[in-house]
Amino acid sequence: MVCPVCGTRKARRGCPALGQQICPVCCGTKRLVEIPCPSDCAWLASARDHPAAAVVRRQQHDLALLVQFMRDLNQRQSQLFFLVNTFLNEYRPSELQSVLDADVADAVEALAATYETATRGVIYEHRPASIPAERLLSALKPIVAEAGKGLGSSFDRDAAVVLRRVREAVDAQRSAHADTPRAFLDLLRRVMRPVGVTPGDAGADDHTKSDAASRLIVP
Question: Alpha-carbon torsion 30, 214, 193, 156, what sign?
Answer without folding.
Answer: negative
